[in-house]
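Dear Dr. H.,

I hope your travels went smoothly. While you were away I took the liberty of generating a structure for the chain from your last submission, since the lab meeting agenda had it listed for discussion. I wanted you to have the full record in hand beforehand rather than looking at slides cold. The sequence, exactly as received, is reproduced here:
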Amino acid sequence: MQKLVESIFDAHGGLARWKQFETLRARLHQGGALWQLKGQAGVLDDTVVTVSTVRQWASHHPFGDTSVKSDFTAERIALVNAAGDVIDSRDAPRHSFAGHALDTPWDKLQLAFFAGCAMWTYLNTPFVLAWDGVESEDAGAWTEQGEVWRKVRVRYPKSLEVFSKVQAIYVGEDYLVRRLDYDVEIAGNTPGAHYVDEYTTVSGIRIPTKRRIYPRLADGNSTPEPLVVSIDLSDIAFV
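The corresponding predicted structure, in token form, is as follows:
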């Protein structure tokens, strides 16, 4: 298993190179059915996301209003104005999703928590496999899109705030990530199949710029509709 993980790291630029950086930033264009379903259409359609690669932290700016940015950690979510003043916050934010289903509306802090948790995980993949307490195992071959992929089952520790503690990463024969699977526990355990494509190289690190998320069926296959979330990244930089 260690050899497989090392091959995945190497395909994406290498763990040693990744560890040279502490922060990753990108322009983010989002679409899909989720945002309107949650009553938050348009808030994060066009924004800049910044994530830490050394701790669990993320921020979106602008967050709706051009003078506001979000501040995400596992323990707290906050909205901060241009002067650096906290205008709204919530401790233990995950608890606020208790009893939520897929169609339960979010408030702004819940949107900020979801978006921060999502983008921190996405942009740190696959190097999150090297994080303390993260466990992975080879779950065998998977055939999709005319290719044979390798499925890696991932278990996250309690210390990390993620959508579900058990997830999966699929890599192609070139060891680049093709797909992520997870259940969004804070939205009624909704199962998602998250596809990545159109890689670019930034400071020697391979990063997908196109992400599309669809419903996942019980047999592991996905449905082509609805498009739950679309994410397109540009202006990617380590800062």
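Two observations you may find useful: The two ends are 32 Å apart (CA to CA). The helical segments are 2-11, 15-18, 34-37, 108-124.

With kind regards,
E. W.
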